[in-house]
From TrEMBL, chains A, B:
One of its GO terms (molecular function) is transcription cis-regulatory region binding. This is TetR/AcrR family transcriptional regulator. The keyword Ribonucleoprotein does not apply. Keywords: DNA-binding. The keyword DNA-binding applies. It comes from Actinospica acidithermotolerans.
Length: 231, 231
DNA sequence: GTCTATATTTTGATAGAC
DNA sequence: GTCTATCAAAATATAGAC
């Protein structure tokens, strides 16, 4: 008989590496939930580990520590759902469907997925306080903005008007407005009616198409990801 | 001779109550700075007290503890500078001065006053995680929005168009956009050009005046401060 | 690779001197 | 009213068993 160190590559269960990778993912899931609920400083590694169904030792076996775990989360999970959702919308009818879809996304995010905006706020605060990690966060945000820019470009194209100059400015405004309104609606739903985002987007896009995209920012060019002024 | 317990009401130096009030204010200042820099959970009462030039005991003599100190800060310092600035702008020329002034405020806030948006993020996260304090935060935000609404009303009035229906929606959008853009510019100044806010505001106001304020939200009415959906 | 037990440090909060 | 000294709890991180 061969020892069990030679052949068991078949899916008898899980490879050692696969098992470790799964543990890593479960720990990242638990970390996302716990950091969102308690904050970076307020969450303990013990709570994260237990919430994932593991011990502290398992966490330290997979990550260097609390900070490294948070940074791994920042790198792997800091992309913005507004860009993902916009890409799903991409290819739809060129009428108001897109704005309506984003409006619905905002209400769902504010009312149901409490963790999302909290975790993003934690990412932002951590990056502001630890400038060496800001580049990573900026990268993720930039990717999301670029994805959204592409969607908006095809959208305006479908409406038959200019798609050139300051589209990145438009997507920046959309992202800023999205997060700002999500936060305000969590403060008080009465502040942000269910159709406020959709209506504002319609206003922005109308102005964009009517003036040939003349609204925000043809003066100063937008770089893909500029330098940070922190460190 | 009269004992020194009877007459010394004259401004020999500071009354006992005045001295205590001054200590309170200094502690609140230090708390604002420290909570902004380290976060609620990350800041220690020792650091706050020392930063104010007092001992831990003095802090506990003036506040019930860390949580009570933070809540006192939330109640006394959570108003929004965008509303204050708008009121300063109030009464100016009815041309683009207002939008330009707010645009300048955004760049200054993002680039120079790091603590402001960080502390607001801490207020938001604390209130999201401690729903019993959300009403207080919502009150401050509502006051700021109402102040801004008044300024916008007089502004549009000066431009000669409708000032009635959804002005609160407009100020809500302005506030959301302000904070969203401040956050994005701190992530990467290249994301938010210096005139993006001003241009977007001009777009919104133009649309507002041209359509007779038809843009956001004539369908759902906005209550002054509605109920929170948390507790 | 994961768990249990523990060393070390730090924190919020309190007691008593002045 | 403020300071100094200190307690008790909780946290990060590590060491060694399995």
């Amino acid at each position: 008989m061969a020892t069990d160190e030679e052949a068991p590559q078949r899916p008898k269960r899980l490879t050692r590496a696969e098992s470790k990778a799964r543990t890593r993912e479960l720990l990242l899931d638990a970390a996302a939930e716990t950091f969102a609920r308690k904050g970076y400083a307020g969450a303990s590694v013990e709570e994260i580990a237990e919430s994932a169904g593991f011990s502290i030792g398992a966490l330290y076996s997979n990550f260097g520590g609390k900070q490294e775990l948070f940074l791994a989360l920042l790198e792997s999970r800091a992309s913005d759902r507004i860009a993902e959702a916009a890409q799903l919308i991409d290819g739809r009818q060129p009428d108001g469907t897109a704005a309506a879809g984003l409006g619905k996304l905002l209400i769902e995010t504010a009312d149901e997925d409490v963790a999302f905006e909290s975790l993003r706020a934690e990412f932002w605060l951590y990056a502001v306080r630890n400038p060496e990690s800001m580049a990573t966060f900026a990268e993720r945000v930039g990717e999301s903005r670029d994805a959204l820019t592409g969607v908006i470009a095809r959208l305006l194209e479908g409406q038959g008007r200019g798609t050139d100059y300051p589209l990145q400015s438009i997507s920046t405004v959309v992202i800023a407005l999205f997060h700002g309104l999500v936060q305000l609606r969590r403060i008080d739903p009465g502040f942000v009616s269910e159709d406020l985002f959709e209506r504002t987007l319609a206003c922005l896009f109308t102005e964009a198409t009517m003036t040939g995209v003349q609204l925000p920012g043809p003066s100063a060019e937008q770089s893909g990801s500029g330098e940070n002024a922190d460190d």
